[in-house]
């Protein structure tokens, strides 16, 4: 379901950028940390546990099939977006904050000790 929300947001952003005369290169890469969700975009088998998300699931499959989106696996340890969505260990949080350029090693100070 998180992938559906991401696809919806990207579609909205693509529309916005198009209206602003800033076309984007497609396919859009979606970094997903769930191999099961990625597999569901590639196969057309019905899954017993996925009945409740069939409509959403087919919407995403259609977008992937049309090559509008490309889901790519990213392990959680490398997923910087987790900083904004999950409680992470102190070291991981520090690394992601620096990776995003929100502060440098000298700016962190004693709050990370």
Q: Which secondary structure elements does this structure contain, and how are they paired or packed?
A:
Layout: H1 2-19, E1 28-32, H2 35-42, H3 54-65, E2 69-73, H4 82-85, H5 90-99
Parallel strand pairs: 1-2
Describe this structure in words.
The chain contains five helices and two strands. It has 113 residues and is mainly alpha-helical. It folds into two domains: 1-74, no CATH class; 76-113, no CATH class. It has a two-stranded parallel ribbon with strand order 1-2. It is flat, with a radius of gyration of 18 Å. It starts with a helix and ends in a 14-residue tail after the last helix. The mean pLDDT is 82.
Which characteristics define this entry?
flat; mainly alpha; 113 residues; 5 helices; two-stranded parallel ribbon; 2 domains; 46% helix
How would you summarize this macromolecular structure in one to three sentences?
The chain is mainly alpha-helical. 46% of the residues lie in helices and 9% in strands.
Structural class: mainly alpha
Strand order of the largest sheet: 1-2
Rg from Cα: 18 Å
Low-confidence stretches: none
Overall tally of structural domains: 2
Overall pLDDT:
82
Roughly what percent helix? Answer: 40-55%
Number of strands: 2
């Amino acid at each position: 379901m998180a992938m559906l929300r991401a696809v919806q947001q990207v579609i909205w952003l693509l529309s916005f950028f198009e209206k602003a005369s800033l076309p984007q290169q497609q396919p859009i890469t979606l970094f997903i940390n769930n191999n099961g969700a990625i597999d569901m975009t590639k196969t057309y088998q019905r899954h017993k546990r996925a009945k409740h998300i069939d409509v959403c699931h087919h919407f995403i499959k259609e977008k992937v099939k049309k090559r509008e989106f490309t889901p790519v696996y990213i392990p959680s340890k490398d997923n910087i977006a987790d900083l904004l969505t999950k409680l992470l260990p102190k070291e991981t949080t520090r690394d992601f904050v620096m990776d995003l350029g929100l502060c440098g090693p000298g700016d962190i100070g004693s709050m990370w000790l």
